[in-house]
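Re: folding output
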Amino acid sequence: MIIRQSVRNRRSKTILGDGVEAARGAATEECSVAAAAVAAPIPDLSSRHPLREHNFRLFFTGSTLSLLGDQFYFVALPWLVLQQTGSAIAMGTIMMVGAIPRAALMLMGGVLTDRISPRRIMTVTAWVRAILVAGIGLLIWLHLLHTWELYALAAAFGSADAFDAPAGQAFIAYLVKSKQLVAATSVSEVRTELATIVGPVPAGFILKELGLAWAFFIDAITFLFIIGALLHLPDPPPAHSVKKPIWHFILEGFRYVGKDIPLRSLMLVAVCINFCLAGPMVLGLAFVAKTKFGSPAMLGMMFASMAAGALCGALLAGIWKIRRQGIMILLVALALALLLASLGILHGRWSFPAVLFLMGAAAGMANVQIDAWIMQRIDPAVRGRVSSMLTLGAMGTVPISMALAGLLIALSLKLMFLVAASVLLVATMAAAAQKTVRQIQ
């Protein structure tokens, strides 16, 4: 019995030993697989180009087609106003009627973007604008259009822009990851520049061949592409559950920016870039072309050079990976100020296009980097309000820039360029004095 029991024990030990060895082997194999999985590099999705992200690609495609359609509107509206009234003054006042509600309602647009949803705001404004331009096209088709309806169209479009602009900027920041914002801003800016260069040509051809009504109909149709894209995209998570008065939300946005030194410093630089270039580039370059060269072709060449530079600058900003982002923004703004000052002393026919190309490249790089960094920096709960403040600062100062440029040109062209450059230089130096701005990565 003892012998049989010992044999039985040895057999059980052997079986147990085999099981243990098998278990050890399986465990070792599992550990090896786990170690291999840990050792295998995990793909960093934040480093992918944003166009590889389905949601951003869908939004980008829809908004691009809509933007191309907008070129028909931009070409057809001035032509329609001149055909309807024969007055350049009427054209200017209609544009002003559109600018007033755009500036007055911009901050409210930012508040509603944060309180409701940027996607819903953009969907509603797209439907409103599609119906408006289709209605104008129908009135033209039926020969029932009156001048007052053009004023109403401009006011309605300006109001829609006040809500759409901050919503669009905030929505892009939701569609991509933080590290993808520079590339997303770059490709969006490049798209906009290309649309403004390429779009007016077919728009003018359609206008000539098919008439004004079809230009507005085509614009209305292209709004359906961005509407379709927005309907298939998700809503950002709600940022506010407690409803507060609108004025409280506006003040909250201003306080948020005021407490953040690098944020308010770079926003000031961005506003100054737009302020110092708007009037001097439109009025100053026209004066240069008239007095120094006596050629409208030269004016067109100068505008084209700056547009081409802006396109290259925006493209470079998305490709060039920069670690010291704050230093780069400050250096580009400084270069822009110096180039702006040099326009007052240039004389050669080719020197102006060359300098303007460099200015466009510098402005394109600065705008992309600043806009992307701001969206990376701010809390998602205030994206709409900060975007509206930035847009208002850029667009709302244009009339002031135009007026001051006109007054200074009457005194001296050199003085006008020098004053504009000095304002930008002071804003850049004030930002550079802040250590937190220089340390932006």
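--- second protein (sequence, then structure) ---
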Amino acid sequence: MYFSCNVSFSSLPVFLPTILKDMGFTAINAQGLTAPPYFLSFLVTIFTTWVADRLQQRGLMIAFLSTMGAVGYVLLATCESVGVRYFGVFLAASGVFPCIGNILPWVLSMFIPKVTAVLEYMYTNNDDTDNQGSDSRRGMGIVILNVVGQCGPFLGSNIFPSEDGPRYVKGQAICAAFMFFTTFLALSLRALLAWENKRLDQKYGTKAEREARKAGEKEGVVTSEENYGPDFRFVL
């Protein structure tokens, strides 16, 4: 997912002024018209990451954002109207950049059964559990994510040759394809993690069952455990 998004993520800021200029705008106006899509994508990034944290639904958010970005690229590739294509720029920017902002924390997302104990958890526990199961896996997960994901710009920065102007259909189509691919990957990974959570529920019991067993135990903060302990669940 990170690789696929980086194909579009790396090409959009570099080639957007050129794309806008080839729509008929002057060079200075093309530079200025890149600001509104970027500002909207900034707002969408802040909002969607907050919503995903609240709902604990990274996969669905990434799928929605990547689909929106893909639609934007489809409009850029297939439409000739300047207004529609500029609208496509808004969709592309508001899909690609927030998508990156949700993929990165999905690697490190924590599942804390007692939401009301978050602050106490943060100050009394040193071992944060995430979607990797342990600190060592989290570290290696970030390494793998960046080693693979940062190869995306090698492709993204070479799919908008000048001879493809003014519509750059090939580059836009490639970006759209990778964003749709991101949607598929996000939904597939979410389905896999949901299946893993069901296996953990069968092995250790559901959240309600675990809390019932702990009702008579000493009061304390319920936390996830490293290496997929009883209270560990993947963030979807």
